[in-house]
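Kindly draft a polypeptide, keeping tokens residue-aligned:

***
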Amino acid sequence: MTASGRRRGRRRAATVCRWLFIPVALPVAAVSTVRAVPADWPVLGVQLVAFTPWLAVPAAAALLLAFAGRSHWQQALAAVLAGCQAFWLFPLDIREPAAEATGTSASLVAMSINAELGGADAGDIVALVRELQVDLLAVEEYTPGLARKLTAAGLDGLLPHRVAHARERAGGSAIYSSYKLTASGVLPDTRFAMPVARLDLGDGGGSSLRVVAVHALAPVEDGLDQWRSDLAAVARADNGSGPLLLAGDFNATYDHREFRGMLSGQGGKRPLVDVAAAAGRRLVPTWPMRGYRLPGIALDHLVTSPDLSASGYSVHRIGGTDHAAVAATLNVRVP
């Protein structure tokens, strides 16, 4: 091939790259706009922003196409998009848990699982509780049938204390514990039951941990306003003092403005800690574990008040549900 032929070939290749850049970069730019602009976006925007971490792949591809296409404006746009993705993959606003308590502390293992309409394998749940030596279990989509199966599988012998609101399909939740539990009602104005309980740490000094089993409505169809309202109700569950654990299916990822707002303590509340994010594992997916052909994202969280420390965060598959269980060891300072 002659030199002029090679030049024509390179020009054609550059032209193809410039055209390919558009369909690759456009969805990255659209979702990045939703991620960056603090607005009440419609349902599709809220759903797409949950998959922000996966945009790093097309953002890198767009950057390569921009330089191969030798378009300066595409190179500039691709560099901005890639920079945004890198910044969101490694955000600077993640709050660290409290330092390990140097004085007296109570240590407990907390776990949460969305049972998907009560279909989760009760034997798997009980086996994991036994393996991890779980002291506190939050179950979402807790049905009367699942309650019976968990009892038959031996959960009551491991975690004898229970605050439960069983409902058919997705509306029920429960808190099981090896420590004494005292029911404190449910969060108001939520679609699904979110029970609140006080866990007695048994130190003789009245120390306790406030626990909320969280299950926010998914932001689908006409549920967007309720989803935002549910997250706001969860944020209000923090009374501003004392150890607190919010455990469950938030139907939100760290990339959702509403979830980060809850963590930041908007409205004068104290900032809260997402245990997975603080442990550097916020990108480990908890949904979907089966059924949907979608990239994995983290919808299930353990969120604590800043006066708790956490370690050993882990994610575990459970049969019969599209959610994974999340668990961690919490250290609660005892006065």
User: Anything to note?
Assistant: The first strand starts at residue 105 and ends at 114. The mean pLDDT is 92. The CA atoms of residues 314 and 327 lie 5 Å apart.
